[in-house]
Structures are given as C-alpha cells and as structure tokens.
Task: structure prediction
Amino acid sequence: MGLGSSTACSISLNTSFTPEQRARYQNDDVIQDILRSAKTIAMVGLSADKQKASHFVASYLLYEGYRVIPVTPRNGEILGQTCYPDLKSVPGKIDLVDIFRPSHEVMGLMEDAIAVGAKAVWTQLRILDFDAAEKAIAAGLNVIMDKCVKMEHGRYQGGLHWAGMNTEIITARRAKA
Amino acid sequence: MSNKRNFGFDTRMLHAGHIPDSMVGARAVPIFQTTSYVFNDADQAAQLFELKQYGNIYTRISNPTTASFEERVASLENGTGAVAVASGMAAQFAVFMTLLAPGDEIVASSHLYGGTMTQLVHTLKKLSITVHFVDPSDITSWEKAITPKTRALYGEIIGNPGGTILDLEPLSALAKSHCIPLIVDSTFATPYLCRPLDWGATIVVHSATKFIGGHGTSIGGVVVESGKFDYTRYPTIADPSPSYHGLRFYDTFGHYGFLMKLRCETVRDTGACISPMNSFLLLQGLETLSLRMDRHVANAQAVAEFLAQHPRVTAVRYAGLPDHPHFERAKKYLPQGPGAVFAFNIKPSSGDARAAGKKFIESLQLFSHLANIGDARSLVIHPASTTHQQLSDEELSMGGIGPDTIRLSIGLENREDLLWDLDQALRAV
Result:
C-alpha cells in the first residue's frame, strides 16, 4: 500500500531540528519524491555484519526493489551486491547516496556525491553536517539529513504503521494500490 | 516553505492510525480477526522473521486492527509509537519485563491500584526485582529511594483512590538527572486530560479497558513510548539479543528500539496479546474520547461538590475541589479536570464504618456495584473489601484507604439523577 499523492502533515517527532530546519533538511515532499524516483542507491558505510542497522536497511531496500550498491573499503560482495571503495568508482549513475558514516566524513562524501552527479544525498539518524548539506543544495542536489531511509519508506508505504509506530500521517484519502 | 498541517486532538481521535486501504476502501477500521498472514514468498517470510521487513506474521505479535489502535493512541499521547496488549496489567508487566533484569530496582508511588501493588510487590519479587514505595507527593522521598540499581520510577497520574496528582515536572527532571525512565500509568486521565510525555515522562501505560474503551465492553492495555530516551546503558535493550541472532534493538531501531524489543521479544514470549475485536471496540471508544471525558469530569465535579456539602459525608478526595491538597497541581497537569474517579468517606451512624459502607452501596439504585472504572455508566465499590483487599492495613493506609472509603467512577448519566441516587442512599445509612 502506498499513499499516492503527497500528504500535507507535519512530521515533527524524533527530530532535534527546528521547524525551519525540518522544512529544509527533512522536507517530506522531498523525501517522498526521492523514494518514488530513486532506483539506484549507493550506501556508503554499508556493513557486512548482518545485525548492523545499515545491513537491515540495505536488505529492506533490496526487497523493496531498489538497486543497492555497497560503498565500503571491503572487497567482494554484501547481500550479493558488488562493493566499491568510493562513490567515484561506482559505474553508472547514482540516484541516491545514503550515508552511514560519522558526521565528520559527510563533507567529503557530499563533495564526491556532487562530483559523480548524484541526484540526492541522505544522511542517516544523528549524522549531521549543515555546511555540507548547504553545499550539496547549492549544487542542485536534494538533501535529507538525520532520517532513516527504511523508516521513511515504511512511513509512506504503510509498513511502519503495522509496527504500531506513529507515522504522523493523517488523511481520509484512499490509499493507492 | 512548509505549510504542513498539525492536526488537532479531536481530528486525530477519528483519523490517526487508519488510512482507507486501496482494495476495499472501508471507512471504519476493519476487524482483522485472523491468527496469521500468508507470506508473499519464502524470502519475505525470512525477512519478516529477522525483523528486516515490516509486516504481520502472527496476531500474538501484531495485527492490522490492533496497529490502528496502537498508532491512534501513540498519536494522541504524542508518542513515537505504541504496543497494545491484553490488559493494563499486561501493559505494565511488559514494560517491566522489557526494561528490567534480576537484581534491578524500581521506585514507585505508594498510591497505586491494588492489582498493581500486588504485581510490584509479589510477582516482581519472584523475578528478584525490588520495589521501593514512596509518598508520591514528597520529591525528596523519591530521590532518597534511588540507588545505583534503580532502573525506573513508576507512578499513577491520578492516585487510586486518594485522588493525589503525580508532580510530573520535578519527577521527570529527577528521572532525567539519574538517566532512568519515568513510567506513568495514565489510565485515569486518558490522553485527553493529560499527556505525560509532554511533561518529560518516557513511558506511558494505560488500562484501555477504562475510559479509552469507555463502555465497559473490552479488556485491553497499551504502552506508549516517547522515543527520546537513551537506552545505551540498559543492557536489556542495548545489548545483543540472544533470541534474535545478536540483534541490538537500540542500535538497529533507534527511537523505536524499546517498543520493538517489547513487541518482538517480551510480548512474543509472554503471550498477553489483545484480541483484534477488542482493539476495534477500543478504537470505537477513542473516536468519542474528548466528548465523553468532558461529560465525565463535569459530572464528577458536580458530584464531588454535592458530596462535600452532604451532612452524611466526612471527606471527599477529588482534586477538583479547592480543599484537596493537589487542587493547584491538578489545574496545571489536568486543566480540563482531574478525571472522574474519586473516593469519599461516609459518616457512620452507629459507629461501624464497614457496615455503613455496605448499607450505602446496597441502597444505590443507579450506580452499578462492580470492580471497574471508566464505564459510560456510574460505578461504585468499597475498596477495602474488594480492589484493595489483598493489602495489609498498613498498605491500605499508605494508599489513603480506610474501612469507610467508597470509590465512585462517575458516568455520563443525567447529573440530577446521580445526585438524587447518592442522596437517597446516604439517607438510608
């Protein structure tokens, strides 16, 4: 189940951002647009450890039909996908760069994302760099910070609701098939 | 840039947690009376069992009707999520089983429902968990009772049956300064009268059987969590889970970690799930919550004022009366009214308080004599011989209950009829 057209609800829980910062770095129209249009997601810092959060997210996104590219110094494959040491080594175009690395590495990764022509960059929960975000926005990229791709996909696809979580989506419109 | 709407409480009572589905478009929340759910394929089944995909496996763990109830309560409490279970007792027990390990301690208010007291004193004792009870109004007594083993503070927003109001703000500050969660049973208030998470509590539990359901039809409980607490030093939530191949719930699920652990381990393993039919009936209750609670508290205020003036009544313990010690505190935390459950004492005519209580209850025509609160109908009970009868005299007096104490749960009837009934029964004593 998906919601179809975008919803006009205030998604305000579990964020330390001000309303202005939310509108700029956690805009739910942008989030829904990224989730709808992205096909190839480069996950920087994807762990081969099956119990790491990044592994959970990658496995979820693969099942939901996205192409996931692990970006990690590790050689070989993770979840059957070939690993690349950095964004610049990834062949073909990247729709979304999903960052699972500490905040101090975000600036370098944003610069790489801009250089390879990625359409959007997303930093996972508690990974923040406002200067890097502004740089990417200035270069024309969509930027989401301090959000989990899996949780947001689940919010708009309906799965998060099944786990009893507060999606903050209020609508009387019928869901789209 | 953002014109996103913050929908109001009444709107969320009706809409939160339910989007008409694409296939049928049912406007009411459908009752999914099913035990289990067919997998799409073997891969999905494996993903679900490893918690890598959201979805339903078995109704003991989750159910779509129950999910609507859970999300609606979470929305009304301003929580990050909720888990519904078989009863209020199951809800608080699930919280304790998720947070605590043998050897841990909790500090709890002494003004608690009798069933909660026995769970804390006797059942938790079997699990080597120690509970220290304190006078809820004395913040220093809470502080003094905290030891390095203390893992949580616990209290009822409106004490049962003395009508004491938990001082949420200093208590949540105290909990925060010790990096432990404040757990609040908000059954008497419902999310309409008070939202403890907004005052800094971490976990809210409800017996949804009461005012949330509101019609005395269904037993159910619910746990709501703020999503703001750091569980890093709670090994039960942060450490690798042996029953999920070493999954670290807090690390992997972040602000959903506590509730995921509670649902997927505690409730999975202890089995106190709610029936989908009950979730539906409790949802029906939520849809009129604010309307009913306004009438409940207006009637309760009128009854309390009437009894306070009555010659056959010695004391009325309702925080909506100016002479109650927590009158001002109630205005702060429960501005629409301090609930609709309170106790009063009868003046015995011949000196036997217990006999006076018995005569009074048996003379009532409209109040139902039973062991519940929060029905649409008015209810009455004699706590010393029923809800709190497992407690010793000392525990009774600690909870503010005497042999002459009568507890009322005020319903939605015509106010004049309630006053008439109480008056004629008091005169019969």
